[in-house]
Amino acid sequence: MNHIAVIGSGTMGRGIAYTAALAGFSVTLQDIRQEAIEQARSYIDRQLDKSVEKGHIRAEQRDIARNHLSYTTQMQEAVAKTDLVIEAVLEMMELKINIFQQLDEWAPSHAILATNTSTMSPTEIAASTKRPSQCVAMHFFNPAHRMKLIEIIRGLNTSDETVEIVKQVAEKMGKETVEVNELPGFVTSRMNCLIGNEAMNMLMEGVASAEDIDKALKLGLNHPMGPLELADLVGLDSRLRNMEYLYHHLGEKYRPSPLLVKYVKAGRLGKKSGQGFYSYTI
Fold first, then answer.
1. Strand 112-115 to strand 135-139: parallel, antiparallel, or no bridges (unpaired)?
2. What separation, in Å, do the N-terminal and C-terminal C-alpha atoms of the chain show?
3. How far is CA 29 from the centre of its chain?
4. Residues 18-48: tens digit of each pLDDT
5. Residues 214, 252: contact at Cβ < 8 Å?
6. Which among 74, 86, 78 is positioned nearest to 10, based on CA atoms?
7. Does the pLDDT at position 282 exceed 80?
8. Nearest CA to 44 among 74, 73, 67?
9. How far apart (Å, rounded) are the C-alpha atoms in residues 96 and 276?
10. In degrees rounded to 5, what are phi and psi of residue 7?
């Protein structure tokens, strides 16, 4: 594994690209919009500079990581000589399948195709390719450069070799892994979505304020972030898509909170829009 292509330069994609470059991989970050690519480049440059200023990395490491990164709007160019593709686009099955079909056509025959999905079936995604044994889910967490865990989820036909290779990649990135049997939501998303959804229902019912709900979970249950803070960070539109997927596949207990639906309809998408359960400066 020398080269990694990351498809999608949003919050997760740019975080994964940053992490991979710091770990010594050559990385190409791709997005269909030039504006998104420039925003990702600026973000990664700032993060590298901040890491040097805070003493987390040396200036030489920053410069090497920067040299390991390239950016493009052309997917075919991004994956032409890659060893591993990590797709990090919106949680929409039709979109992921479309991308994997293109990746299967353009990536080298030896390349592993991974999806960063937090809820969806790697088996279904892999079935759209001619290399299902080389398809897998690698679920990173936000922010990707800080969070230590990667969930690795096998599809029905994912080979042992593929799982072992992505575990080695994760280890080189400084991550711990857990191997999860495929069911919608895996481990963390099922738990997070349930907790977050209940917090939203409690807020809607007037049980407590957003601040006090989050404070109770942080101080009473030792959660590093409150569930409403976390939903704002993830993006309420992304959380709603996850909830709808889980509700469709796992039933009533995952029905999205009416408050979540209302906020998304109002454009209150969390930190990225400046307003969610809390207000932010953007």
1. parallel
2. 37
3. 14
4. 999 999 999 999 999 999 999 999 999 999 9
5. no
6. 86
7. no
8. 67
9. 27
10. -105, 115
pLDDT attached to residue 142: 87
- Distance, in Å, from the CA atom of 61 to the CA atom of 188, rounded to the nearest integer, reads 32
Q: Using one digit for the tens of pLDDT, what is the confidence trace for 96-139?
A: 999 999 999 999 999 999 999 999 999 999 999 999 999 999 99
Question: Considering the entire predicted model, what is its pTM?
Answer: 0.87
193 confidence band (pLDDT: 50, 70, 90)? very high
Bridge partner list, 153? 137, 180
Measured CA to CA, the distance from residue 118 to residue 97 in angstroms comes to: 15
Q: Which two tokens stand for residue 125?
A: 């995604």
Residue labelled with tokens 């803070």: 229
Measured N-to-C along each axis, helices 188-205 and 258-265 cross at an angle, to the nearest 10 degrees, of: 90
Sign of CA dihedral 223, 46, 138, 261: positive
